[in-house]
Design goal:
It comes from Pedobacter helvus. The protein has 390 residues and is an alpha+beta fold. The chain has one domain: L-amino peptidase D-ALA esterase/amidase, CATH 3.60.70. The strands form 4 sheets. Strands 3, 4, 9, 10, 11, 12 and 13 form a 7-stranded mixed beta sheet that branches. Strands 1-2-5-6 form a 4-stranded mixed beta sheet. A two-stranded antiparallel sheet has the order 7-8.
């Protein structure tokens, strides 16, 4: 073999090594563990039985980088069998639809759809078509469509409003249980977070049997600014990429974050709102500060079947199961842990993305991040006493 061939092989080997070092994965694939509780089977919102997630991803030409993500609380007709739900608003700079009725009545009557800001009404219209066409809804005259959004206009031609009815229907029809695609998919295709490429992330926690054995699952659409921290390590500062770092360097401070929380625990809408509030602790833990232009919302629902609200209920009263206040703390811990890991997964699973006007947003550099986490002893913090599983 001649020298030229050897050099070529060396370059190829080096490239392969570099690729391997930067291979994307979920946060815990690299030793980044959040909290003390166990995850569900898939470490995803779909670990809550009955919950399904679907995506429609739009990548076209050099400027369309957007999509839709659908979260269905159960397999049935959600309008006819509504689920208890609540909303917590961290910062109200947002254009979501359907939040006020959820806050007022304490229930959710459609799947939750996520998309970009200017496509919100278009997606809501398609969701209405979907719900009205379902068997059993022939005489329905009003539907509260729940659509969340973030602004992906930095990478996507947001003014083109490229998401169409067929994309919404695809996300709904593709919804399934099991593993959930993360990173640059669905509503996270064109988002940015904490100076890096953002996207969709998910995680779950399962309580010990002694605390009820309930599951809490979280899915996020990350698109916000701040100073990235991972397990307390100042990753954003170490990577020299953070808000107010350099007045001459463009940095995305505004944006938004949608946090969707599911649980099988028997909770009223009042306690679901308390659960949703705790997700905001995780939002701050990763370095977010809810800038003026960041619309940050948490929507929580319970799949507990006995607490469903029937559209054509015959009784004038209803009886529900609701955990005592003193039994909620384990769930609060679970939602904090799952939200933080979901946010980190959205960063770890995202990839470099080039979009509108040739602008490129780099993904979180895995190798450098791991080196920083080692420096601050922030890796492999999962050595737990066996008692935690009881």
């Amino acid at each position: 073999m001649n020298i030229k061939s050897l050099l070529t092989l060396a370059v190829v080997a080096s490239s392969l090594l570099s690729f391997a070092q930067e291979k994307r994965g979920r946060a815990r694939d690299f030793g980044v563990f959040t909290g003390i509780l166990k995850t569900g089977k898939y470490n995803a919102i779909t670990d809550v039985a009955g919950v399904k997630v679907g995506h429609a991803t739009l990548i076209k030409g050099d400027s369309v980088r957007t999509g839709v993500t659908a979260i269905a609380p159960h397999e049935g007709n959600i309008f006819q069998e509504k689920v208890p739900a609540a909303v917590y608003i961290g910062n109200g700079f947002g254009k979501s639809m359907g939040l006020s009725q959820i806050k007022e009545l304490g229930n959710l009557e459609t799947p939750i759809l996520l998309t970009n800001t200017l496509n919100t009404p278009l997606v809501a219209n398609a969701l209405l078509d979907y719900v009205l066409a379902q068997p059993g809804n022939e005489n329905v005259r009003s539907v509260n469509a729940m659509v969340g959004e973030t602004n992906d206009g930095g990478l996507n031609d947001i003014r083109g409003r490229h998401v169409k009815t067929e994309d919404v229907l695809a996300a709904l029809q593709n919804a399934k249980d099991g593993p959930v695609a993360e990173g640059c998919v669905g509503a996270g295709t064109g988002t940015e977070a904490l100076g890096f490429k953002g996207g969709i992330g998910t995680s779950s926690r399962v309580l010990p049997k002694s605390k009820g054995g309930y599951t809490v699952g979280v899915l996020v659409q990350s698109n916000f600014g701040g100073v990235l921290q991972v397990n307390g390590a100042p990753v954003g500062r170490e990577l020299n990429n953070f808000y107010l770092m350099d007045k001459n360097k463009p940095y995305k401070a505004d944006g938004s974050c949608m946090i969707v929380i599911a649980t099988d625990a028997p909770l009223s809408d009042r306690n679901l709102e308390r659960l949703a509030k705790r997700s905001y602790i995780a939002f701050g833990n990763v370095g977010a500060f809810s800038s003026n232009g960041s619309g940050d919302y948490a929507v929580a629902f319970s799949t507990y079947e006995k607490n469903r609200i029937f559209y054509n209920a015959k009784n004038t009263t209803r009886t529900i199961d609701d955990l005592n206040n003193d039994n909620l703390s384990p769930l609060f811990l679970a939602v904090w842990e799952a939200t933080e890991e979901a946010l980190l997964n959205s960063l770890f699973m995202a990839t470099d993305t080039k979009g509108k006007k040739g602008r490129e947003v780099k993904a979180l550099p895995i190798k450098k991040t791991i080196e920083i986490l080692k420096k601050y002893n922030a890796l492999n913090q999962n050595m737990l006493p066996m008692a935690i599983e009881k």
